[in-house]
Amino acid sequence: MRYDAGGGEGGAARKQALSLPIGDFEIARLAREFVLDCVNLVAGAIDADHVSTLLFMATLHANIRHITHDPELAERLGGGAPPDSERRPVSLYSLARTYHLSYETARRHLHKLIDSGLVERAQDQGLIVPTRALLGPEVSEVVNRNELRTRRFFRQLNGADAESKVLPLSTGTMRRQISRLTTEYFLTFLRISSEAVSHDLVTTLVFLALLQAITEQHPVMGGTNPFPTASVFAAARQLNLPYETTRRHVAKLIAAGLCAKAPDGKIRLSNDLKTHPQSDDYLGATIVETCRLADNLTQAGMDLELRV
Q1: Each residue of 121-168: pLDDT tens digit?
Q2: What is the C-alpha to C-alpha distance for residues 159 and 20, in angstroms, rounded to an integer?
Q3: Domain total for the chain?
Q4: Exposed/middle/buried for residue 17 (C-beta within 10 Å: 0-12, 13-18, 19+)
Q5: Reported pTM
Q6: Main-chain phi, psi angles of 281, to 5 degrees
């Protein structure tokens, strides 16, 4: 793993994070599950592959980042999608650099998004997700489902029953803010994971899916195998990827020493992974970001009630 912890983020920064009533293992497990659910939710809604989905969300986030962190502006704009005049264009180069994609890969996937009408070029040649692309019923459904999934995640992080009470959805303004905050979290989580695992986004997602499947079988989660494994098929199904594509990325993970073939033919984590000096830094960074999201959601007015 090659995560640049920026001076030991795993230790000191974790102590400064918002305190949650559950342990690090459970925070990390819930965070991976949430991120994988998010990528599948958005990819399904816009009918795109995972790299295009990342770039769509990254463009959208860059356009409205200033709104996410300005509650007064967000309130003034109301519960609808901000107009194009409020969106700040982002360059293709900036997106490629931030998410460790080659310029050509980013260009190719952004052209797909432009052709489908989900992204367009602004007058200064920057890129925006236009308001009209966010007004359809599919996007409204994604925003609603994202709030429900985020509330479940928020309750789990706070040690509460994930599915106890049924209440109406939030107001439009709060729902949009929840969507902005979770998009920012999703992108940050994938960026630091990519820096730690592989600068190939799909390889990183495959690793997260394998890690999640293996974690669910761990004795801590009630499993009986002290050395749990996961199949390539399970990762492919989790990510809605073709089996052959997933198998190719698993081979990259094995070559990098992050995973290995188990005697049963399935995939296990490398024996060296737990003792790698940067593993704790990566775990700490993801926990810090997850605690930050919980804090931001609390400040945005989210409570522990489940809404449908």
Answers
A1: 998 779 999 999 988 778 788 888 898 899 999 999 988 876 655 565
A2: 8
A3: 1
A4: middle
A5: 0.86
A6: -65, -40
